[in-house]
Amino acid sequence: MITGRFVSAVLFSILVPLLAVALGGAGDVGTQYLITLILIWSLFAIGFDLVFGVAGILSFGHAAFFGCGAYCYAILTLDYGMSGLPALALAVMLGSLLATLFGAIALRVNGVFVALTTLALAQLIHHLIEVKLKNITGGTDGLAGVPRPDLWGINFYDDWNYLVLVAGLFLLASLANAVIRHSPFGEVLRAVRQSETRAQQLGYDIRLYKVAAFGISGAYAGLAGGLLGALMMFVGPDMTRWTTSGDVLIMTVLGGRGTFAGPVLGVVLFETLKESASALSNHWYGVLGITFVLVTLFMPGGVASLGAAIFRRFWNKAEKMR
Description:
By secondary structure, the chain is mostly helical. The chain has one domain (4-241). Helix content is 77%, strand content 1%. It has 14 helices and two strands. It has helices spanning 4-26, 29-54, 62-78, 84-106, 112-132, 134-137, 159-181, 184-194, 196-201, 206-232, 242-255, 262-280, 284-298, 302-321; strands at residues 143-144, 234-235. A two-stranded antiparallel sheet has the order 1-2. Helix 1 packs antiparallel against helix 7, helix 3 packs parallel to helix 5 (112-132) and helix 11 packs parallel to helix 14 (302-321).
């Protein structure tokens, strides 16, 4: 059944990449790079919110899926000469498989112990990449010279062309996200978040649904990691550090967890504040911290809830005027 929320999600999925391409076309190279960065982090945040916002599971392990996706793309293109799109596809698969494994292990416990377990597993991956597998991953030096995808003879080293490619992938991924969230699968995840006991009494295997949510979320993280590695043309161990999981958590909360537009709005706010504050001071994380505290205190539903409240107010006024 097609609902108003599903239509709104589809429209949002279409408008965001169109707006990104329009702004990129009107801006300079720096603007195009920033917009591409926002779209990539939005993909990461969308996947993270499927677990955190929709299913209600706090995870500190998503940096592992993100970073492994980036390393998978970098190693396959640098060391094995694989074309960009197949390498991206394998990065998506690796992110999904790793996330499924994390979910299968971490979801054996409950509550805050799930978050702690994912954190421990992610730190293990980080140690492997930075120390144990340094002959492959480059260790603390990372991997430089990561190529961008080659497709149809288009020069994706041009930031405008790469922005268009990422916007197209964002469109497909966001539409898939709309379908997932408004499908019976998404409804079950919301039911699990509200009451695991009731969902289980209805006959649903809630652990299976949670693990599946992790797998889908990891696919988004792997895609975002591969795209970011190609954008920066560099992949480093910081991408697998726990602070990366913290960043995507902050983005999601700022925008509004569990909402369709929230993760994207949170990334826009985060990256805009980061760019503005870092130009003025090296302590830009303090500005982000203060903003995070204020939003948490006065807008628990994030920026998306504020937008929804304004929309409802104008809608009610329009209804009264009729």
